[in-house]
């Protein structure tokens, strides 16, 4: 983003002592001119602004996270499009999650610049762009995790006729992006809600501190829409998956007992089920990371709107932003390390990043069989 003249103004008076620059103490919002005062809620202005060392530390952290995320997510996307065995409908959802994570990373250069300027560059317009990317990435990854849970349930519970075709997967991906749009776009022009600076005033999100009925309704609605609904769907599908696996194992044991054999499952069937369950565990790990990344945002927004806002400090306001960025970096590496197929392809193309953990084509139910069903004409 290009910086305007006001972005290049001197940050504030500084005192020189023994050759070192000693900052004067300021309260948060000291460098925000009156015409942009609505960007900072009065709640944050009662706290002392952090020193430049703190801002530089965050800038360094954000820079490292950006490199890790871009590298990891681009590797996931590259492996998908260059490895025939990975081009399945199920893995398409992994690629979509990587795209959402990369969208989150588009904020990082702005975040680093904000840390140096100690405020949002571009003022309201810059804050809107930053929050828009974060909102689309957050809500999109939430509903994408629900879709992954649904796909895992269908794949494991109904291995013969429950697999999604490529066309169905693409339609669900379009739905995920469409689902993320309404509550991301509405605050842009103040139609419902608005985007403001938060924490150390270097990150932006929707306003959860203004005490009016419109803000309360918006926060309550977006909490249900972007957090509760995806969470409910994820728990529903994984609980059904777990129940189906237990019921299936119980049925096989009872039947084997009647037939006086040790097991009815062949070695190949057992290996197939093992691979799919491993993939489900990876998806469950991603869900856990989603909870860790967005629960802090949900809690702080609810406290700011309906609870005791006095406990919300700028440092607490920074925790959700950092957590969300960290998880967007971890997601691709979780898949690359633990997903059987991605790990095998990673070892082939980047042997210095992973060990060879190749899964036989005859045992993975997520590869050639899925490709066959994906390419079959749908009714």
Summarize the structure.
With 379 residues, the chain is mainly alpha-helical.
Structural overview:
By secondary structure, the chain is mainly alpha-helical. It has one domain (40-352): Rhopdopsin 7-helix transmembrane proteins, CATH 1.20.1070. Helix 2 packs across helix 11, helix 3 (89-105) packs antiparallel against helix 10 (314-338) and helix 8 (213-258) runs antiparallel to helix 9. The chain has helices spanning 42-45, 52-82, 89-105, 108-117, 123-157, 166-180, 182-185, 213-258, 267-306, 314-338, 340-349, 368-375, and strands at residues 14-17, 20-23, 195-198, 203-206. The protein is elongated, with a radius of gyration of 24 Å. The chain has 12 helices and 4 strands, in the order ββαααααααββααααα. The two termini are 48 Å apart. Strands 1-2 form a two-stranded antiparallel ribbon.
């Amino acid at each position: 983003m290009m910086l305007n003249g006001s972005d290049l103004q001197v940050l504030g008076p500084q005192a020189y002592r023994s050759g070192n620059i000693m900052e004067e103490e300021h309260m948060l919002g000291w460098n925000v001119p009156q015409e942009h005062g609505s960007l900072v809620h009065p709640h944050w202005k009662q706290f002392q602004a952090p020193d430049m060392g703190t801002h530089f530390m965050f800038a360094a952290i954000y820079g490292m996270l950006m490199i890790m995320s871009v590298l990891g997510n681009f590797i996931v996307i590259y492996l998908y499009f260059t490895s025939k065995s990975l081009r399945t409908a199920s893995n398409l959802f992994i690629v979509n999650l990587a795209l959402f994570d990369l969208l989150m990373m588009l904020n990082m250069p702005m975040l680093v610049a904000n840390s140096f300027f100690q405020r949002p560059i571009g003022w309201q317009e810059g804050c809107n762009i930053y929050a828009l990317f974060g909102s689309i990435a957050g809500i999109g990854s939430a509903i994408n995790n629900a879709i992954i849970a649904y796909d895992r349930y269908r794949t494991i519970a109904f291995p013969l006729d429950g697999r999604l075709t490529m066309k169905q997967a693409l339609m669900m991906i379009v739905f995920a992006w469409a689902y993320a749009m309404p509550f991301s776009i509405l605050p842009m022009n103040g139609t419902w809600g608005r985007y403001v600076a938060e924490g150390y005033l270097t990150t932006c999100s929707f306003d959860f501190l203004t005490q009016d009925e419109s803000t309360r309704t918006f926060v309550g609605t977006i909490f249900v829409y972007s957090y509760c609904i995806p969470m409910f769907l994820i728990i529903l599908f994984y609980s059904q998956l777990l129940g189906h696996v237990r019921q299936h194992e119980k049925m096989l044991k009872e039947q084997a007992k009647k037939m006086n054999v040790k097991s009815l499952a062949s070695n190949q069937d057992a290996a197939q089920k093992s691979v799919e369950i491993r993939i489900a565990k990876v998806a469950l790990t991603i869900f856990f990371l989603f909870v860790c990344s967005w629960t802090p945002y949900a809690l702080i927004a609810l406290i700011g709107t309906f609870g005791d806002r006095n406990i919300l400090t700028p440092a607490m306001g920074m925790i959700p932003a950092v957590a969300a960025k960290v998880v967007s970096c971890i997601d691709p590496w979780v898949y690359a390390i633990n997903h059987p197929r991605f790990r095998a392809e990673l070892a082939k193309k980047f042997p210095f990043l992973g060990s060879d953990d190749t899964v036989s084509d005859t045992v993975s139910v997520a590869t050639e069989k899925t490709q066959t069903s994906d390419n079959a004409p749908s009714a």
